[in-house]
């Protein structure tokens, strides 16, 4: 009797509430106002009001349901990387939110604009170890650009606007908004403010003219200039300005892993990627340079190798929107704080008569021609590098490529030549296994007409392979290529080279049947074990209008070369040419 | 070297956690930290003392602090002409016989006795850290039962006539 009454009362209340807006409605509306077109989400207890509001709303964005919250966040990263727009994620409190942690950290390391909404238990029980409670603010403070817990529903619209502003401006990054359940249920009675003012957050966009002048003065006298282009060029959409600058002065250009495509990979001045598995020409150019112009790269340790041997003779100019990156790892002589595009525009406007550096250019290009990335073709199994080249040719170099981390990632970076920015989606800073497949989902949703290839390892694939179902669910034509060497290849490579071939727990000789798995997930599935069948298989997969999975059996013991051994300088690369390993 | 760094911050929830968390994960060890309100509502000031040798690391520290969205201003005032003070409460063993002796020690330090009980005294001293240190040294032989220091809070002086050259001590 009592319960019936309670139900009636609740129904009555809900009828009354329909004319009002709840916090959840405000949230959905705020997202719509941000022109969000895709939201990656997974429902749960603490976000039930938000999902109910979503169900009832006429919001114009699509909601994409993945199969695991890690899938959501990597998909949002793939979306953000390829479109330049913020990736939006909704997950529930407690485990839903903690499942996002890896991806949020990944986005922080690689500066991706992500806005995450997490559910939270009601404010009345926060701090009591309630069901599915986790201290998301405490957990995400070190791995976000900023985070919020909403404590008053009238702050919600302002917080959403602030969060999008913070995530997408300056050096992009993830922002978390923790929404307690009672806040999203609360009926909004007061008018709310949406204007915001962030006195402590004013990113410098326009560089100091004096530093630009110093940089151009250094250009005038440089005899051995080289450009290092990083992901900052991508975020600033400065590829054309970079091309103009590099061509004008005929400067060789190398990129970081995340900078691939910011300068056309097939351009004659391109040296490809620098760093641990970068090209010999790129590393030697940096080593011998007398002027290193870093545009939007953060001098990560995989790029620099042993710091004392990094660009030892160079005057270092560093253009970065984040002043904290300048001088963090490498001593910088010419700091330029600002947006890469603004800096390059000003550099292009300044005319300087440079010293003739054609001799330097010839020398660098000789290295490029003499020591390109190389591999030895196998007689029976598929050579992984050759496989990447076939994917490159089959997609005419125009695909969006996502990867996990490890050997296949490095082979993709070496052998797929990206001519445009935002085409290579990889986990650079954090090095997250299982990133490739979900990132491809986001990339495909952001660029429906593009070919998206997820080049993944057999180890990484098994970390997020449940997302194959997301592909099927939305019939996304992502092509997943498992570069299968039945091992955690990069771990095994290090064990071979630096741990005397003690292959501790790195061999996966008991993998599942990927063909059956692919079929179970409803993907067009292939296994290819010999090179003669590769092109035909790729063609079939690419022609299929829907998800496809290829289990490509590669030479098991192949290694990534050239390589800078840990603790060595970039000029001490091993395996630069065949038989030098 | 001990550095005094001040940060003006917006008094939003969790700001202290953000700042101290940042320092610890970037490998800086905080020797002391004081936080409190300022003349402006909603704005707090944090004063830290950290021990950092390399100039580059200090630069990194101030830049990382400045990058925080709630942080409005950061100053490394180590080399500035400044006023730095801390407060210290000392509960020292004091028998009726030793009371007057202790009060004789305390007086030149312009410290105050706040509480007297049968066996102990509570002394309050305010000043630059080496003065506090000196008083503690003098009181130690009597037996210190409890001691609590607030850590330094500091201002730069109105006129920065000359830079102080002896960086090694926290001269006021």
Automatic annotation (TrEMBL), chain A:
Protein's UniProt keywords contain Transcription: no
Gene3D superfamilies per UniProt: 3.40.50.970, TPP-binding domain
EC number assigned by the record: 2.2.1.6
Catalytic activity entry: 2 pyruvate + H(+) = (2S)-2-acetolactate + CO2
Cofactor(s) demanded: thiamine diphosphate; Mg(2+)
Cofactor note: Binds 1 thiamine pyrophosphate per subunit.
UniProt enzyme class: transferase
GO MF term set: acetolactate synthase activity
Pfam families on file: TPP_enzyme_C, TPP_enzyme_M, TPP_enzyme_N
Alphabetical UniProt keywords: Amino-acid biosynthesis, Branched-chain amino acid biosynthesis, Magnesium, Menaquinone biosynthesis, Metal-binding, Thiamine pyrophosphate, Transferase
Family of this protein: Belongs to the TPP enzyme family.
Protein name, as recorded: Acetolactate synthase
Provenance organism: Salinicoccus halitifaciens
From TrEMBL, chain B:
Domain of life according to the entry: Bacteria
Record carries keyword Cell inner membrane: no
Catalytic activity: 2 pyruvate + H(+) = (2S)-2-acetolactate + CO2
Keyword entries, A-Z: Amino-acid biosynthesis, Branched-chain amino acid biosynthesis, Transferase
InterPro entries noted in UniProt: Acetalactate_synth_ssu (IPR004789), Acetolactate_synth/TF_NikR_C (IPR027271), Acetolactate_synth_ssu_C (IPR019455), ACT-like_dom_sf (IPR045865), ACT_dom (IPR002912), AHAS_ACT (IPR039557), AHAS_small-like_ACT (IPR054480)
GO terms assigned for molecular function: acetolactate synthase activity
SUPFAM superfamilies referenced in this protein's UniProt entry, alphabetically: ACT-like (SSF55021)
Alphabetical list of Pfam families matching this protein: ACT_AHAS_ss (PF22629), ALS_ss_C (PF10369)
Enzyme type, top EC level: transferase
Function: Catalyzes the conversion of 2 pyruvate molecules into acetolactate in the first common step of the biosynthetic pathway of the branched-amino acids such as leucine, isoleucine, and valine.
Subunit structure: Dimer of large and small chains.
NCBIfam families in alphabetical order: acolac_sm (TIGR00119), PRK11895.1 (NF008864)
Family: Belongs to the acetolactate synthase small subunit family.
Protein name: Acetolactate synthase small subunit
